[in-house]
User: What shape does this take?
Amino acid sequence: MTTVETMQHDVVNNNETLEALLKAFRVQDGFDKALESYFSSKEDALSFFRNQFINEYEQLIEDLNAIGSIWAMIPFLEIGNQKACKEKIELKLYSRLTKHDSELLMEFETRRDELFSACENLLKIMAYIKSETYEEGTLVTMIRPIFKGIYTMLDENQDSVSNYNLSNPFIFYCNDEFWDIDYLDDYVPLHKLISFIPGNTLQCTVMYKPEYINKTLSKLKHYKLKQVLSELYLDLI
Assistant: This one.
């Protein structure tokens, strides 16, 4: 058997063992005997469940990031007077960011059971083996404010000052570097000079580039979530 085949075999065995133990724990039918049949000591059992928890916890982080990153936007584009175009785009941008923030916790709550059930089941079992108790929903309660603090886009939508706050005032998203403004190629040189005057009435194409929000900011938030939840992991087990 090759190394890869051995690893695949071990994964299958671990999954089968986990399913059998989870079933026994859910019905409280012979769980202690099941532990004794699979493990030589409580320490071995805890080691097994910790490894399973690590896998589920890493998946939870990725799933939470996927939910938090629902803001991905296409470029906004308007043609006309520069000032009017920018005002229209800023209104659309503000609406999009606000919509993201308003849907953030709703999406979290809608998928809560799907996201957290595996980790919570493992935490219950580990607490039982250690003769402790784990109150269902504790992990959700701990992570909810962290998730909201990191993935909320606008400062005004934060409930309070958070240690995990990665939101920004709206003006941050209107930085000059996020805009492309192109005037018609056939403008005479004098018009070209006028184009540099704020509030000019020349016709142009105005585009808002969301690459920073979609990529750079997304990576920053994902990194922060991993960092904070990795620290939280140590408190959990």
